[in-house]
Design a protein that fits this description.
Elements: H1 3-10, E1 26-32, H2 37-48, E2 53-59, E3 64-69, H3 73-84, E4 88-90, E5 93-95, E6 116-118, H4 136-144
Antiparallel strand pairs: 1-3, 1-4, 2-3, 5-6
Helix pairs in contact: 2-3
Length: 156
C-alpha cells in the first residue's frame, strides 16, 4: 500500500451521499371544527408554516381543511392539534355513491356534510357497523324481485 492510497483513504473526496426518499405530492383533507373567521385564520396559519406545504384551503361550512404539498398526513394532523388546540382527524367521509349501503347505521352520520357518508370501506369500526355489507351479486338478486323492476318475477 503506497502513500497515495493511504492519503486517499484518509481523505475521501467522493460525493456519494445517501439520498433520502422524496415525499410525494399529496392532498391531505382534515376535519377540524371551524366556528368563526378567527378559527379559520388560526388553522390556516398553523399549517402554512410547515415545510413542504404548497397550498392551504379552508372550507368553514364543511369544517374541512385541505393541504396540498410534500407532507405526511399524520404530521399535518398533529401540527393542527398542537398549534390550534382543536380536535382534528383525517377526513372520514366519502360521497354516498361509493358506499353499498349509505344509510346503514355504521355509514350514516348526521354530522356529515350533505352528499357524504362515513367511509366504512377503509375504516370499518366494529362498534358502529351493525348491518352486513351486501356484495354486488346479492344486490342483483334482490333487484330481480324488486317492485321497481318491470321485468321482475311476481309470485304472490
Amino acid at each position: 500500500m503506497g502513500a497515495l492510497d493511504y492519503l486517499s483513504n484518509l481523505w475521501d473526496f467522493s460525493h456519494s451521499k445517501k439520498f433520502k426518499k422524496k415525499k410525494q405530492l399529496q392532498t391531505v383533507e382534515i376535519k377540524v371544527r371551524i366556528d368563526c373567521e378567527g378559527c379559520e385564520r388560526k388553522v390556516k396559519k398553523a399549517v402554512e408554516g410547515m415545510k413542504g406545504v404548497t397550498s392551504v384551503e379552508v372550507d368553514p361550512k364543511q369544517h374541512k381543511l385541505t393541504v396540498i404539498g410534500y407532507v405526511e398526513p399524520n404530521k399535518v394532523v398533529k401540527r393542527v392539534r398542537f398549534r390550534t388546540g382543536k380536535r382534528a382527524e383525517l377526513w372520514p367521509y366519502v360521497p354516498y355513491d361509493v358506499v353499498y349501503h349509505p344509510y346503514a347505521p355504521g355509514a350514516y352520520d348526521k354530522k356529515a356534510p350533505p352528499g357524504y357518508v362515513r367511509n366504512v370501506l377503509v375504516d370499518p369500526d366494529p362498534r358502529r357497523v351493525t348491518a352486513a355489507m351486501a356484495d354486488p351479486t346479492e344486490e342483483r338478486i334482490s333487484n330481480a324481485f324488486s317492485d321497481d323492476n318491470p321485468n321482475s318475477c311476481s309470485v304472490m
